[in-house]
Amino acid sequence: MSKITPENIREKAEKYRDYATRALSELIRIRSFSGQEEEIVNFLQREFAACGAGEVTVDNFGNVLARLGNRGPVIAFDAHIDTVDIGQPERWSFDPFCGDIRDGRVLGRGAADQKAGMASMLAALKILSESSTDLPFTLFFVGSVLEEDCDGLCWQYIVNEDKIVPDIVILTEPTGGKINRGHRGRMEIEIMVSGVACHGSAPERGQNAIYRLAPIIKAVENLNGNLADDPFLGKGTVAATRIRSNAPSLNAVADLACLYLDRRLTRGETPMSARAELEALMEVQQAGARIEIPVFEKPSWRGTTYPTSKSYPTWLLPENHHLIDYAGRCHQRLFGSMPLVDKWIFSTNGVATMGLANIPTFGFGPGNEEMAHAADESVAVDDLVRCAAFYAYFPWIVVGQ
Ligand SMILES: [Zn+2]
């Protein structure tokens, strides 16, 4: 085994600059909207094997997993390989699926969110598979699916059904050069109020569900101002996002009205506490409203449904956790500076790895969070190289190099 030093890891990451860039171009050219990842999974199966993975599997949910090494601590790198749609085509100044390389950047939907993370992982896999035939750690390189529709569901499946429970998870979502150690949780909530339908010409005979919902809407608006705040994660929030009602006809009084909420949870708030808070509202009680958390049950590309409640817990790795220390040391040795430690604004698979399964998780990934879901999405090639070096070196820090 050649000696592992930050210098030779950096050199090898540089050597694979073109490889990572080309791999990202190809990943972008393969469209992979949530639930339609079959083609990109097939591509990655071949690519993982070509990069020297010990074993490549596609689980029954449709995630693609490459393993390298067979002993020691288990470290998983995660990149979700689905993307959101392109939005309005006229907002793009280039073909969203071109994968072109221009001015040191790779262009296209998924460039930053987050196929670049996968491209860096592939380069790291190449570096590590070449460095030794008997690595002192076990690595999983995971291409996870359906994240944009239901963050973390892929990892609920990996932990609970594949029975793979790593000691450490590294998310490769974009962090703009920073180490991210958590983000707010979120949940969807439905508040339902019933009424009694009657002819619209004599509304006094019935009970209008829409009118009964009205005070609840106002109460929710007021609630937003009173939610918990946290200096690091930010404030808990609640927003009304949709109203739906039902009546036998447009000449009838409504017998059902539903209010949909987007709730962001900060430190100390849980899906249970958020629900209890709504149930405690006087307006909710007076209207006899029912509160439900919708269930996600869209099938994956493999046709597997794995129903889960649409609540995604807050997660936060403590600032003084040894992984933050390892990540800082890794960054310092490779790049000569300590990284900023921050959080994501958006949500990631960390809701499952750390939020539900309690696996210590942090993020370091190519690209900027602001690019996610935006038109003219792109990522810097330099980011790919830096992240490949980080992923290839980090496991050595974990085993005490
Ligand atoms: Zn993402």
Task: Give a structural overview.
The protein is of the alpha+beta class. The protein has 2 domains: 6-183 and 314-398, Aminopeptidase; 185-296, Alpha-Beta Plaits. It is built from 11 helices and 20 strands. It has helices spanning 6-15, 17-29, 38-50, 111-131, 153-160, 209-225, 271-279, 282-286, 322-335, 350-353, 381-398, and strands spanning 55-58, 64-68, 74-80, 101-102, 105-107, 138-144, 168-171, 179-180, 182-183, 185-194, 237-246, 256-265, 290-292, 295-296, 308-309, 311-312, 315-316, 341-342, 361-363, 378-380. The strands form 6 sheets. Strands 1-2-6-3-7-19 form a 6-stranded mixed beta sheet, with helices on one face. Strands 10, 11, 12, 13 and 16 form a 5-stranded antiparallel beta sheet that branches. Strand 4 (101-102) and strand 5 form a beta hairpin. The chain is elongated, with a radius of gyration of 24 Å. It starts with 5 loop residues before the first helix and ends with a helix. The model has no long low-confidence stretch (mean pLDDT 97). The site of zinc ion has 5 residues, from helix 4.
Summary keywords:
alpha+beta, Alpha-Beta Plaits, six-stranded mixed β-sheet, five-stranded antiparallel β-sheet, 11 helices, 33% helix, elongated, binds zinc ion
Shape: elongated
Q: State the strand order across the main sheet.
A: 1-2-6-3-7-19
- Tell me the β content: 15-25%
Give me the CATH superfamily of the largest domain.
Zn peptidases
Helix content: 25-40%
Mean pLDDT: 97
What is the CA-atom radius of gyration, in angstroms?
24 Å
Number of helices, where a helix is a run of at least 4 consecutive DSSP H or I residues: 11
Number of domains: 2
CATH top level of the largest domain is Alpha Beta
CATH topology of the largest domain: Aminopeptidase
